[in-house]
Amino acid sequence: MVEKGKTSGNKALMLALPVLVGVVLWFVPAPEGVEVQAWHLLAIFIATIVGIIAKPLPMVAVAIIGISVTALTGTLSVDKALGGFSNKTIWLIVMAFFVARGFIKTGLGSRIGYIFMRLLGKKTLGLSYGLIITDMILAPAIPSNTARGGGIIYPILRSVAEAYGSRPGDGTARKLGAFLIKTSFQTLIISSTMFLTAMAANPLSAKFAAEQGVEISWGLWALAASVPGLVSLLVIPLLLYKIYPPEIKETPQAVQLAKDKLAEMGKITTHELIMLGTFFMLIILWIFGGSFGVHSTTAALVGLAVLLISTVLNWQDVLDETGAWDTLIWFAALLMMASNLNSLGLIPWFGQMMGEMVGGTSWAVAFIILALAYFYIHYLFASNTAHISAMYAAFLAVAISVGAPPMLAALVLAFFGNLMSSMTHYGTGPAPVFFGAGYVEMGTWWKLGFLISVINIIIWLGIGGLWWKVLGLW
After folding, report:
1. How many domains does one find in the chain?
2. pTM of the full predicted structure?
3. Which of 61, 170, 188, 318 is the most buried (most CB within 10 A)?
């Protein structure tokens, strides 16, 4: 009874927190140069973000409340409050969720994983690269890194670890499981950075950038991320292999396990072939479709239509994909608020104010300070979405105001919107899945996470910066 009462009290406190924050901000006088309407919308927006972080209710419920308050108070008309639902960027990510379900339902995602395990799994390092390649192949079409990591990669690596007697809590974690857990999680973050459709909040960054005149297409995002992404995917497992090595270095049993699993799955099915063909069609349309008038969202709609017509998916599968419907609602709410904050002049005002604060230095120094601040403030966030929604547009506005090349600033902040979640056990959706397995202690998780964050920043700003110069992006 005491525990139940304590839990109820904590939940009530967490529910009261965003309400209190919103009410206080609402009645604080708007700063000079800021419209009252914009200030009131900021109060609702910040209260919504606090609610998402505190989690007194599911994120989608907090988002609906935010939309309701926006319309009820007359801060925005109901048409504008619901305007986010018509945004094509949102529907791109929703469609991609449905397509991703085909990979899991048909078993194609697991088959790809076992194929690479069979090819590369004789040694522990090779096994980790096999899991990495699997994730990277699936990343463009599966926007939920939680689904990729928790639904496909984690079950495979857990079965291998246990086959070698590596289990959490009994002193055997470092034999194999801890290394595979940490490596797979960190590289999942990197693969989520490499494609516009690899993480649910990536299109949010692209949309905010577009509102400030910077258009990032699917192909440009992938091209810009390709070189630093591949370098990070190569370097991070090697680094972990040196500083956090597994006790077992040879894993021939993994190859046999993969062979057994593939034999159990049998020959590739017709539905898997259709899923594979649809995947390649989507990649081609996402890269080249813009040159002949096919928007990325149109391509995703066509992909889903093919899967429905071929019965790879049925409508019940679409209805059961609750992550997609949740994403539609919270994405629409946050995008609506952030977009209107920009159109009402608050984001430009903030950018000008911050620009004056970091003025007096070169744009390069100012931008590096801004980028690092944007990155490491993620220690305060338990969600990429909340962080990007609250910070991306404002930091981009400041970066542009101090003279940073707009495309460079937009891309770096967009990429950092993924890489920053490598540090903690709560910073992104798949983190609790991998940390919750119990193979890696919290202190170790944080120390390795911080070290890898530094390495990623060096790779993406250093090698990435040179690559973007070659591409003419700055």
Report:
1. 1
2. 0.77
3. 188
Whether the CB-CB separation of 124 and 74 falls below 8 Å is answered with: no
Q: How far is CA 438 from CA 167, 385, 443, in A?
A: 9, 26, 12
For residue 219, the one-letter residue type is G
Sign of the dihedral defined by the CA atoms of residues 7, 10, 16, 17, in that order:
negative
In a domain, 317, yes or no: yes
Lowest mean pLDDT among 92-106, 163-177, 236-250: 92-106
Looking at beta carbons, which pairs linking 78-87 to residues 24 or more positions away fall under 8 Å? Answer: 80/336, 80/340, 81/336, 82/332, 82/336, 83/336, 83/339, 84/331, 84/332, 84/333, 84/334, 84/335, 84/336, 84/339, 85/328, 85/332, 87/207, 87/332, 87/335
- Which amino acid, 264? E
Task: Report pLDDT for 145.
Answer: 83
Question: Per the domain annotation, does 140 fall within a domain?
Answer: yes
pLDDT band at 1 (very low <50, low <70, confident <90, very high): very low
pLDDT greater than 50 at residue 79: yes
* Residue 135 belongs to a domain: yes
Instruction: Please name which of 216, 159, 178 lies closest in space to residue 407, comparing C-alpha atoms.
Output: 216
- Helix, strand or coil for residue 123? strand
pLDDT digits (tens, 9 = 90+) for 164-204: 888 888 889 999 889 999 999 999 999 999 999 998 889 88
- Asked, for residue 433, whether it belongs to a domain, the answer is no
d(CA 204, CA 342) in angstroms, rounded, equals 14
Domain extent for 165: 88-322
Query: Tokens 């690899």 identify what position?
Result: 198
